[in-house]
Write a structure and sequence with these properties.
Elements (H helix, E strand, L loop, with lengths): L1 H24 L6 H12 L4 H11 L3 H10 L11 E6 L2 H5 L2 H12 L12 E6 L11 E3 L2 E3 L7 H6 L3
Parallel strand pairs: 1-2
Antiparallel strand pairs: 1-3, 3-4
């Protein structure tokens, strides 16, 4: 219970920071993307509470805020993990077994693509190309690139982030 209270207090502090940031933009037109990016930097994602605050501050509809968030892939509606895992499923990586590497990551972390571990440590995404086809199959964890992967190497790589 103490963890939940601490987490809630941290969230309330982040909402206060969002409110402060929004004061700079109140009533301005054409700043929705910039405001959403700043809000996501503060909170880490864009929950309904943040969306409502943004809509009110910029005098736009909540549906406009939501449709903007869901249109752009860099916005998140759910909390993301500290470590963002991106598995390349482009042609070169897929042919070399990226699907098997992805399956092993899902097994190890007990999450599927698009999900985040309960401890908010890892988020898992599939992408189309990271531009490292010569290293196929490739996985990126934040800015770290791992190439020529096999499913057997997944556990040792994940241990680097514990």
């Amino acid at each position: 219970m103490q963890f939940a209270v601490k987490k809630d207090l941290e969230f309330q502090e982040k909402l206060q920071k969002v409110d402060e940031m929004l004061k700079k933009y109140k009533g301005q037109k054409g700043v929705l993307l910039q405001v959403l990016q700043e809000a996501q930097r503060i909170v880490g994602y864009l929950p309904l509470e943040v969306q409502i605050r943004v809509a009110e501050a910029l005098d736009v509809t909540l549906s406009e805020v939501y449709s903007t968030i869901t249109f752009y892939s860099f916005f998140n509606l759910k909390p993301r993990g500290k470590y963002q895992i991106r598995v390349c499923l482009g042609t070169a990586c897929y042919v070399k077994g990226a699907d098997k590497v992805l399956n092993r990551i899902e097994q190890e972390l007990k999450i599927k693509v698009g999900e985040t571990t309960e401890d908010l440590k890892f988020s898992l995404e599939a992408c189309r190309c990271v531009g490292a086809c010569g290293l196929a199959p490739v996985v990126m964890i934040n800015d770290d690139v791992y190439g020529r992967l096999t499913p057997d190497r997944v556990p040792e790589i994940l241990k680097n982030y514990e």
